[in-house]
Amino acid sequence: MNTRPIAPDRSLDELDRLAELAEDVIRRCRAAGASQAEVAASIDTGLNVSVRLGEVETVERTRDRGFGITVYFGRRKGSASTADLQPDSIEASIRQACAIARYTEEDPAAGLADAALMAREFPELDLWHPWDIDVERAIALGVEIEDAGRAVPRISNSEGAAVQAGETLAVYANSHGFVGRERGTRHMLSCALIAEDDAGMQRDYWYDSVRAAADFMPAAELGRKAAERTVARLGARKLSTRQCPVLFVPEVARSLIGHLVHAVSGGALYRKASFLLDHAGRQVLPAFVDIVERPHLPRGHGSTAFDAEGVATRESPLVLGGVLQRYVLGSYSARKLGLTTTANAGGIHNLVVAPGGDDFAALLKRMGSGLVVTEVMGQGVSIVTGDYSRGAAGFWVENGAIAYPVEEITIAANLRDMFAGIVAVGSDVDPRSHILTGSILVERMTVAGE
C-alpha cells in the first residue's frame, strides 16, 4: 500500500502571489511614466521520464518561470522579461521596458486591448488535474508501455517510451485593472518503436495527451498501438506519379485546418501575405463544412476564459456553410485592419470542425482507390500563394481497403483547390489537440513518386 503523503496543493496561493506582484509592477510602471502597462507571468513545473529497452534514460524535473513586462508611452511600446522574480531583477526589467518605449517610434496600432472587452466572468473549465506520480511509478509506467509494444511480433528495437506530467500557473494583468488567473495541467505518454524485415527498418510512434491522467488510454494499449503502426509500415513501396484522392488521417488533417487559420490570421492579412486576403463573407470550403471556435470546452486543450490580452473569449463560428465568417485577430492586427479583436491574441482556442457521419472505414470505401496520408514532412507550404508540396508517407488504398504502405512520395496541390475539393470530414475526431477534426478526404491531389 502506498503511504507516501500527498503534497498540499498550493497553486491558488502561488497564483495570488503572482497576481499581487503583477499588480505592483503595473503600479510602478505607471509611476515611471507609462500611460499603459501589462504583465504576463507564469510558472511551469513538470516531471519528464524516458526509458529505453527497459532501462531509465532520463529523469528531469523542471520549474521554469517567466515574467514579461510591456509598457506604452502613448503609442510607443517597450517590452522586457526576466525569469528571476527577485526585486532587483524585476526593477531592472521595468527600467529596460520603459527605456525601450521612450526611444521607440510611435505605432498607431499599439496599446492594450479596449477596456470594455476585458473578461468579467471566469467559468470553471476543469483544466486543473495535478498528477500524483513519482519518479519510480513514472519509470514503471514507461516500461509497461514499451514492454507492451516490444512484445508485438516483428518489433526489433525501440526508441523508448516517455512519461510527462506538467502544471502551468499563469497570470495576465494590465492597467485597465484586469487581473486574470489561470491554472492548467497537461500530461503525456508516448512510445516510438522500430520494426524490421528483409526490406529494411521502419519507425513509428503513438502518444496520448490529456488534462487529467484518468483520461489516458491504457498504457499497454498505447504501446501496442505504437507497435501496430510501426509493423504496418513494413514493406513500404514508392508510387508512380499520378493524380488521385487523398485521405488525411486526423492527426495530419488538423495541419490543413492550421494552414486555414494561418491564412485568415491578422498578421498575414495586414501584411497582405495571404491567399485568403479579403475573403471574409466568401466561400472557402464546401457548403457542408462548419468550423466553430469553442473556448470553454471542459478539459479542452485550448480552453480559456480570456485571451493573451485579457479579452473575454466566447463561442464563435469561423466557417459556416463553407463561408468564412471572420478573421482571427488580436487587438493589434485588428487595428491595423480597421476591425475589432476576435479574442485570438495568442492563438485559436479549441477549433472544432463539425464531423460527418462516416468513420475511417467508411471514408476508405468512399474513396475507393487513393492515398491515405499518415505523415507529412518538410515546410513546403506558402500561405502567400497557397501552394502546397510536402513529403508524405501512408498507405495505398484499392477498392476501399488498404493495399500496402507507401513512402518517399510528395503530395502537391494549391490550398485553395484542396479546401474547395474537400469531399468529407470523418467522425474519427482526434481529441489530443486544440484543433479538433476527423479525417479529411480531398478529391484530388498530385502524388509524385518514382
UniProtKB/TrEMBL annotation:
Residues 129-234 form the Metalloprotease TldD/E central domain. Residues 241-449 form the Metalloprotease TldD/E C-terminal domain. Residues 37-101 form the Metalloprotease TldD/E N-terminal domain. GO terms for molecular function: metallopeptidase activity. One of its GO terms (biological process) is proteolysis. This is Microcin-processing peptidase 1. Belongs to the peptidase U62 family. InterPro entries: Metalloprtase-TldD/E_C (IPR045569), Metalloprtase-TldD/E_cen_dom (IPR045570), Metalloprtase-TldD/E_N (IPR002510), PmbA (IPR047657), TldD/PmbA_N (IPR035068), TldD/PmbA_sf (IPR036059).
